């Protein structure tokens, strides 16, 4: 595993709306300050009660510098859970995995672990009823009447690509068109 070196990290504060009371300090990319995803429960409780404003204190930081600044600011302002201040941060900062890239070996290891897990545990999607993908229907030879019934059910539905025009991939320019598939077959033979 390795980390990418980028200088697009910012350190930001969340303040209780309309006040100068900082309740959260974090680092992240320039989009992170506006995100409400992946926040702790005390953060959501504070935002629900007071709302919040954002101050981006530093920008264009390296990850290492941003981590050091985050630790310093959290220490200076104090965490609420430790009785040291108003911050609802649950850690002292400096953690995170920005730019983390998993090696192929690690991804294969995760894949094998998932496969082993589902050998002994039920797949949550296993019992969902989907007539198009069930084993019985995939192997079934549909009669003409059944095909007509399915066709009638789908009548009136709007096609996913209805109204879309993309001249770059229409006709002979489409790599999957019949003409191009035949050309590929001839090249292979």
Assess the beta-strand content as a share of residues. 15-25%
- Rg, nearest Å: 27 Å
Tell how many strands the DSSP assignment holds: 5
- Taken from the alpha-carbon principal axes, the silhouette is elongated
Count of DSSP H/I helices: 6
Largest sheet: 3 strands, antiparallel
User: What structural category do the secondary elements indicate?
Assistant: alpha+beta
Low-confidence stretches: 1-5
Helix content: 25-40%
CATH architecture call of the domain at 2-100: 3-Layer(aba) Sandwich
Description:
This protein has 189 residues and is of the alpha+beta class. The chain has a domain at 2-100: GIY-YIG endonuclease. It is built from 6 helices and 5 strands. The chain has a 3-stranded antiparallel β-sheet. It has a two-stranded antiparallel ribbon with strand order 1-5. The radius of gyration is 27 Å and the shape is elongated.
Q: Summary?
A:
Helix content is 37%, strand content 15%.
Please describe the topology of this protein.
Elements (H helix, E strand, L loop, with lengths): L1 E2 L5 E8 L5 E7 L12 H10 L1 E10 L1 H15 L22 E2 L2 H17 L14 H5 L4 H11 L23 H11 L1
Antiparallel strand pairs: 1-5, 2-3, 2-4
């Amino acid at each position: 595993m390795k980390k990418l070196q980028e200088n697009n990290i910012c350190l930001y504060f969340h303040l209780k709306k309309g006040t100068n009371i900082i309740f959260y300090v974090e680092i992240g990319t320039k989009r992170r300050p506006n995100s409400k995803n992946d926040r702790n429960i005390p953060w959501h409780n504070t935002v629900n009660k007071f709302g919040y404003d954002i101050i981006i204190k530093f920008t264009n930081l390296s990850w290492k510098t941003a981590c050091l600044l985050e630790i310093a600011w959290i220490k200076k302002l104090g965490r609420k859970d430790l009785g040291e201040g108003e911050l609802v941060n649950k850690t002292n900062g400096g953690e995170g995995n920005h730019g983390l890239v998993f090696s192929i070996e690690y991804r294969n290891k995760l894949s094998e672990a998932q496969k082993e897990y589902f050998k002994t545990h039920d797949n949550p999607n296993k019992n969902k009823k989907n007539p198009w993908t069930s084993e019985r229907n995939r192997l079934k030879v549909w009669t003409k009447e059944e095909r007509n019934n399915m066709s009638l059910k789908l009548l009136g539905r709007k096609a996913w690509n209805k109204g879309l025009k993309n001249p770059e991939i229409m006709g002979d320019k489409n790599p999957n068109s019949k003409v191009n598939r035949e050309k590929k077959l001839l090249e292979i033979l």
